[in-house]
Amino acid sequence: SQQGEEDPQALSIQEGENATMNCSYKTSINNLQWYRQNSGRGLVHLILIRSNEREKHSGRLRVTLDTSKKSSSLLITASRAADTASYFCATAQGGSEKLVFGKGTKLTVNP
Amino acid sequence: SAVISQKPSRDICQRGTSLTIQCQVDSQVTMMFWYRQQPGQSLTLIATANQGSEATYESGFVIDKFPISRPNLTFSTLTVSNMSPEDSSIYLCSVAGGRFYGYTFGSGTRLTVV
After folding, report:
1. Do B102 and A46 touch (CB under 8 A)?
2. So what's the pLDDT on residue A39?
3. Does B92 contact A43 at a Cβ distance shorter than 8 Å?
4. Which of B42, B101, B108 is opposite residue A48, by nearest beta carbon?
5. Cα A98 to the center of its chain, rounded Å
């Protein structure tokens, strides 16, 4: 079953604007990960945030984690047309290595 | 991080037939994961493949429909058996990168059953 729920399901913005995607989950986690998928291909790992971290940066990406609210957000700054893709959050629970994925946000960046 | 070679990248199959998908990893890994992504949907875990033991299937997935082999620590196959149009999906394999690292995914197999 799906662990995370992404919000919004779809997002359309102009190049240069920022894109924010949110993810909520239900159970305790070891970490939360964000992935990108271009046109139904394989997933690419973007960033991992541990359960004891609150914020993490990687290039134009900023991820926050609020374990009290069981939620995370992914911010892409200064978006580019190449950022057009689907973005998924995923969590690993307890001692398991199984990743459980959210429903995803489809981002379209218009040139 | 590991590199995964997944084959085939896509296939169109007749209903009632079977398709075997292969994943080759460039390093030894304990567990490999198989996912299904139905059109427009997220990823759902099918099973976890361990070397030397039977795969562990998630609720809703059975071995007769999705038999998995794991002959060594770098290779695994997933077979989609007795296919129907409802099996049309993208199938992906994955390996973990360690507790604080991301997972690596194969490039996916886009299956269409007609």
Report:
1. yes
2. 84
3. yes
4. B101
5. 17
Q: Which two tokens stand for residue B10?
A: 């896509």
In Å, how far is A41's CA from the nearest CA of chain B? 6
A44–B42 C-beta distance less than 8 A? no
**Chain A nearest CA to B111, separation (Å):** 12
Q: Which residues contact B80 (CB under 8 A, 6 or more apart)?
A: B18, B19, B21, B65, B66, B87, B91, B111
Give the mean pLDDT per block of 10 residues along chain B (114 residues).
94 98 95 95 94 91 97 96 98 88 94 98
| Chain A residues with CB within 8 Å of chain B CB | 1-2, 30-31, 33, 35, 40-48, 50, 88, 90, 92, 97-104
- The mean per-residue pLDDT over the stretch A3-15 comes to 85
Angstrom distance (rounded) from CA B2 to CA B104? 6
Rg (CA), chain B: 13
Torsion of CA A54, A57, A61, A63, to 10 degrees: -10
Q: Quick check: B73 and B61 in contact, CB under 8 A?
A: no
HSE of B89, CA atoms in CB hemisphere, 13 A: 20
By Cβ distance, the residue of A2, A48, A50 closest to B102 is: A48
Per DSSP (E only), the strands in A28-95 are: 31-37, 43-50, 55-58, 61-66, 71-76, 85-92
Closest Cα in chain A, distance from residue B6 (Å): 10
Q: How confident is the model at residue A94 (pLDDT cuts 50, 70, 90)?
A: low
